[in-house]
Amino acid sequence: MALTPEDVVTKQFQHVRFKEGFDPDEVDDFLDEIVVEWRKTIAENEELKAKLAAYESGSAPVESAPAPAAEEPVVEAAPAPEPAAEAAPAADAAPAAASAGIIELAQRLHDEHVAEGQAQKDKLISEAQAQAASILAEAEAKGRDELARLESERAILETRISELRTFERDYRSQLRGFIEEKLRDLDVTGTSSGASSVSSAGH
Q1: Cβ–Cβ under 8 Å, residues 91 and 67
Q2: Cα angle vertex 15, ends 14, 19, to 5°?
Q3: Which is nearest to 116 in space by CA: 50, 49, 34?
Q4: What is the 3-state secondary structure (H, E, C) of the chain?
Q5: Does residue 70 carry a pLDDT above 70?
């Protein structure tokens, strides 16, 4: 299907998750300029096609046809009919040659405009594909960097959690030893107090 200016105007690009890339406003302005020039080229092509069709139908050269008829009222020139007869084909040949030249020029201009429009279309498509590939590559690179950063943070957090668990285990062990030591001290103190009371009561 041929690409038209309306296709460029209504084209919607998918948004990426990351903000990196070209400025959307600059891209829209550039595409608007291309659409204006493209429409101007299409209008010129249509005008040239209309002129070409008019010349091919023979409507334009009719204006120069009455020229030989203007010489007919001059009756005094009757003694020399042969030169007038030779002048008529020459007069008819001039508009035909001019028409052929205009048609050739119109065809050449038409071909040039068509080639220019095709080149602009190919350039626009190539630039859009390059831009899409660049945006995709940037998004993929950004995603890889983000995943690497998250993996690094995850490794740091796992190391920190392991350190905290080790600290908790050591702290519990030390606290348990401290409590057991205090309980043993209480047992020893209680036993000593009981023995002293018994000794005092025997005296």
Answers
A1: yes
A2: 150
A3: 34
A4: CCCCHHHHHHCCCCCCCCCCCCCHHHHHHHHHHHHHHHHHHHHHHHHHHHHHHHHHHCCCHHHHCCCHHHHCCCHHHCCCHHHHHHHHHHHHHHHHHHHHHHHHHHHHHHHHHHHHHHHHHHHHHHHHHHHHHHHHHHHHHHHHHHHHHHHHHHHHHHHHHHHHHHHHHHHHHHHHHHHHHHHHHHHHHHHHHHHHHHHHHHC
A5: no
pTM, whole model, 2 decimals?
0.31
Alpha carbons 136 and 18: distance in angstroms, whole number: 10
Tens of pLDDT, residue by residue over 28-66, are: 887 888 888 888 888 888 999 888 888 888 754 444 444
Dmax over CA atoms of the chain, in Å, equals: 188
Per-residue pLDDT reduced to its tens digit, 137-187: 999 999 999 999 999 999 999 999 999 999 999 999 999 999 998 888 888
